[in-house]
Every structure is written in C-alpha cells, then in structure tokens.
UniProtKB/TrEMBL annotation:
Protein's GO biological process: L-arginine biosynthetic process
Cited SUPFAM superfamilies: Acyl-CoA N-acyltransferases (Nat)
The species this protein was found in: Sesamum angolense
Protein name (database record): Amino-acid acetyltransferase NAGS2, chloroplastic
Keywords: Acyltransferase, Transferase
Amino acid sequence: MGSNNFCFLRGVWYIDKKLLQALDSFIVVEKQGEIIACAALFPFFEDKCGEVAAVAVSPEWRGRGQGDKLLDYIEKKASSLGLQMLFLLTTRTADWFVRRGFCECWIECIPEERRKRINMHRGTKYYMKKLLAADTTCAIYYDNSVRFNSL
Ligand SMILES: CC(C)(COP(=O)(O)OP(=O)(O)OC[C@H]1O[C@@H](n2cnc3c(N)ncnc32)[C@H](O)[C@@H]1OP(=O)(O)O)[C@@H](O)C(=O)NCCC(=O)NCCS
C-alpha cells in the first residue's frame, strides 16, 4: 500500500474515532421506537467539568418534563464521572437553564480547550452550575422505553 493511501486511511480512522467518541457522549430518549429527546455531555476531565450540549425535545413532547429528566440524568452522570461543574453555551435558551440552577459566567470559566473552538460572532452566553457530591445511583434512571448511550 502506498504511503498516500496509508495517510488517507489513517485520516479516515482518526475521523471515525473522533465521531464515535462524540456519539458516545450523546444520550437519547426513545419512546415507541422514536427518538423524542437528546442531549450530550462532553467531559473535560482535567478541568473537572463537563459541557452540556444539544439539549432538544421534539415539539410534541415539550412541556412534559423530558428536558428536566435529561438534565437531571446528565447531572448525575457528570457527578459519577467525578466532574464538579457543568457549563453550557447558549444563544437563546438561557432562561430554561437559569431556572435549573445555572448562572451566567465569564468566558474565562470555560475550559481553554473548548474556548478555542468558540465562534465569537454568535453572541453566545456562558452558564455554569456547580454539581452536588458524586451520585453513582443513576445507572437505571428511566423506564425500559428509554435508552442511553454509555459515556
Ligand atoms: C428547552 C427544551 C429542551 C425544554 O424541554 P421540555 O421537555 O419542554 O422541558 P420541561 O418539560 O422539562 O420544562 C418545561 C418548562 O420549561 C419552560 N420552557 C420551555 N422552553 C423554554 C425556554 N426556551 N426558556 C425558558 N423556559 C422554557 C416551559 O415553559 C415549562 O415551564 P413550566 O414548567 O413552568 O410550565 C425544549 O423546549 C427544546 O427542545 N427547545 C428547542 C431546543 C433548544 O432550544 N435547546 C436548548 C439548546 S441550548
């Protein structure tokens, strides 16, 4: 195999690995074979914090506590991973998170590794929430109709 092919395959493998790692961070809620909500937790172990991202509930299921359950699960999962804080970036759903204990913070509070990838033109605001002590009881949190990807 030529060195160009080798570099190409190595590149594909690297992208696939990154993609798989990212997929592992997603949590989906499934009802009757349909995904009705999702969220992601990206841990930054060195900074002992995690990013909450991609929180979304399908329109028909909104206002029925699915967002709350997802966030609760993420908080427990983050604690069980030894993380002490959660942070998030949002341009439009700040109120929802503030009602759930998040406080606006400076960009300097965001891990440097994540800060480098922030698009400063989006008018994003940053929020953080301190987590309670580790809780490892979240393994089975939902009923059987709900599936979680492992983190
Ligand atoms: C924000 C979102 C995840 C909430 O999910 P949900 O399952 O409807 O949330 P819950 O049922 O747990 O909570 C509903 C409560 O949040 C409130 N709420 C919903 N969207 C809100 C918003 N954008 N800002 C403030 N409050 C909001 C509802 O009015 C309701 O309040 P109540 O309990 O006083 O009646 C959902 O509306 C959604 O998917 N929005 C579009 C995607 C999005 O903006 N995601 C955030 C990306 S950072």
